Here is the input.
Amino acid sequence: MSAIGRPGKIIALHLNYPSRIAQRGRTPAHPSFFLKPASSMAASGDVIERPAGTELLAYEGEIALIVGTRARRVTPAEGWAAISGITAANDWGVYDLRHVDRGSNLRNKGGDGFTPLGPEVIPAASVDPAALRVRTWVNGVLKQDDTTADLVFPFGTLVADLSQLITLEPGDVILTGTPAGSSVAVPGDVVEVEVDAPTAPGAPSTGRLVTRVVEGTTPFADYGAKPHVDDLQRVEAWGDAETAGVTVPTPFTLSDELREKLSSAAVATISAQLRKLGHPHSSIDGVRPLVPGTKMIGIARTLRFIAHRPDLFASHGGGYNAQKRAFDSLAEGEVLVIEARGDATAGTVGDVLALRAKTLGAAGIVTDGAVRDSAAVAGIGLPTYARAAHPSVLGRRHVPWEVDTAITCGGTAVLPGDVVVGDDDGVVVIPRKLVEQVAAGAADQEAEDAWIAARVAEGHPVDGLFPLGDEWRRRYRAWREERS
Here is the structure.
């Protein structure tokens, strides 16, 4: 370890290996970094404590770049030349602490001993940066095995991107991302990471970086955030639901046939069908589309805001809060429905988050509060329904509280998995169990209404025709039978 001095700064990359990106389900357009304190550095053979009261201490075998010369505003070609050596790293993290600082990763990845490096350094000039290999073993079993052949962000690009704003100095360390296979280690486990260049002359290797996991004994104090985990964190930490022991329900999706029927039906028609089925309060009242002519169909996800209170905003409003988590987790075809208690005196979504939803393939946004940057949001092209526009940030009136829970938006109950349909008349919510029945009834009603409109256009009076009386209904049924 003597070959690796204490770095001035440790910079870590979020995603880089295609195998890991496939696991996470999101492809970064640009490198995304976070800082780890130099005090997190450890040597091969050291132990790492799993903090008391936590369960999800996860290893991430990585290649660490050691900066050899000062780099400021270098090009990607010059970036690799600024690296003097590479070594093995383990970017440890505690998923139990992500809920308070996921944006910075300081607490969950910055603990003492959370960045082991070593044991040996391979001279960078002796290897091809696209021909390196990183492997991780847990208790002797190979868990991670990948190469740098297909990195999304080559090492020279990372150095160049960072150097646009940050002067990289000799001894600084850059962690370059982990491949698939990262998972949870428990007290008693021994985790080993090795980086090598198997095709280079002499097949140079860092040797195995060894870390043993022990149980911490000092509990977290009440003046700081306590560990907290949920099934999502368990799945992300372990790598998949089965290994995490989490049962993931099969997501509800709209078939092409159902989507076509709902798309062809007006919200007014769907509302009438829901009323017939005993659901007269299905509309999200008071919301209008930012862009007239908008049609929206999707599966509901929910986000709940509560009224602003300084202490609650301090604990829930910053960092990777519920609002950011909701937008970051949207999937194709989903509509984020936001409960803002009908308070339109502060924004609940702006252009950046709307763009995030758009790029993830979301089907729309509905809020009974206000939209900031309304012209920009309208220009993004994502169906958005709101009570009003307002320039203020959410902290003036709201605290982002929780995601994917039952909410009340515009006077209507909305559960995750409900179907949400919107047009110029507004938005209605269809309970999942009624979707097929409502879609079929709406399609029939649209056909009937079109036939009635044609008769009115021919000059017939509406009395007995709208709604259909016995005689006109007989004629309509005969017309349907003839067509079928």
Remarks:
- The chain has a mean pLDDT of 93.
- The CA atoms of residues 13 and 33 lie 4 Å apart.
